[in-house]
Design goal:
Layout lengths: L8 H5 L5 H20 L7 H4 L24 E7 L5 H11 L4 E7 L8 E7 L2 H12 L11 E4 L15 E6 L1 H4 L1 H9 L6 E9 L4 E7 L2 H15 L6 E4 L40 E3 L5
Parallel strand pairs: 6-9
Antiparallel strand pairs: 1-3, 1-4, 2-3, 5-7, 5-8, 6-7
Length: 288
């Protein structure tokens, strides 16, 4: 039976418009869609997974040429609600302390696939294994949705162990570091997702703000470099903070890696809470 492997809009559009050819193409597309919907228990064809456009190009270090399956830190989670957001997905990782995040991107639902997908790259292999285990055992959330997790076909190696993360803290005059100033400035330079923004200190002449981006790759990295290359450190200080999704050390450990064949039968358990807004800002002042 034909699969979505053969569904290519460009090639269909360029097909001659005689009745026989048009009917054949329509039958093939319909058959492919039905085949996928009737076989949700199977891993989608890799060509189909690649059909989802990324919301942002956050994985500038993706390379399968020098990365093995054993080292792959990138996981594709499918079956998510069409309303899933980057902050909402990160929230599920944070409450479970599954690991430090390198990048997250949402792949929106398609007309013939009503559910969305998320590609998440963890900082190390241990974090990626925790994601796979949580989804496989039904402990990742999203009640009412049959989540499945697969190792992404484009393999991403672990990041170097260092202080960098998707979270940065800036301190300086409000005219330089306030969210109303920095966020539009960042948006004029690169694409990014904001998980949360916390104003930890606010006085007329001094402000401390914590910015939690959706990703480190191509997002918080660019933000930190932009601030450091623009302002002297005496004007604006900019440092990395620990990712709140990192384990505290009290979580149960799971040894060994998870294969795609192991990660295809989850029974999710999710409370249908309202998604975190695109820009939640928590403001609380401290005395100078």
């Amino acid at each position: 039976m034909p699969s979505l492997l053969h569904v290519k809009p460009d090639s269909v559009a360029s097909t001659p418009t005689n009745d026989d050819t048009t009917a054949s193409a329509s039958e093939e597309i319909t058959s492919g869609i039905l085949y996928y919907l009737q076989n949700q228990c199977l891993a989608p064809p890799q060509e189909h997974l690649a059909a989802w456009p990324s919301s942002h190009s956050t994985l500038d270090h993706e390379s399968s040429g020098f990365t093995t399956d054993v080292d792959n830190c990138c996981v594709l989670v499918t079956g998510l609600p069409s309303t899933v957001t980057v902050p909402g997905f990160i929230h599920e990782i944070q409450v479970r302390r599954l690991g430090k995040i390198a990048a997250v991107s949402v792949k929106p639902a398609l007309p013939f696939v009503p559910s969305a997908a998320v590609k998440v790259t963890m900082w190390n292999k241990e974090g990626a294994d925790r994601i796979m285990h949580a989804v496989r055992t039904g402990n990742f959330g999203f009640e009412g949705h049959s989540l499945r997790a697969y190792w992404n076909r484009v393999k991403v190696p672990p990041q170097q162990r260092n202080e960098r993360s998707r979270v940065m803290k800036v301190r300086g005059h409000p005219d330089k570091v306030a969210p109303s100033v920095l966020l539009p400035w960042f948006a004029s330079k690169f694409d990014f997702d904001i998980d949360q923004v916390h104003v930890n200190r606010s006085t007329p002449k001094d402000m401390v703000v914590e910015y939690r981006f959706g990703s480190y790759l191509n997002q918080s990295f660019h933000a930190v470099m932009l601030v450091r290359n623009t302002y002297h450190r005496k004007e604006v200080s900019c440092v990395w903070l620990k990712d709140p999704c990192e384990p505290t050390g009290n979580e149960p450990t799971r040894h060994g890696s998870i294969s795609n064949s192991e990660a295809t039968s989850p029974q999710p358990d999710w409370t249908n809470q309202q998604q975190v807004s695109a820009l939640p800002i928590d403001t609380h002042s401290e005395k100078p």
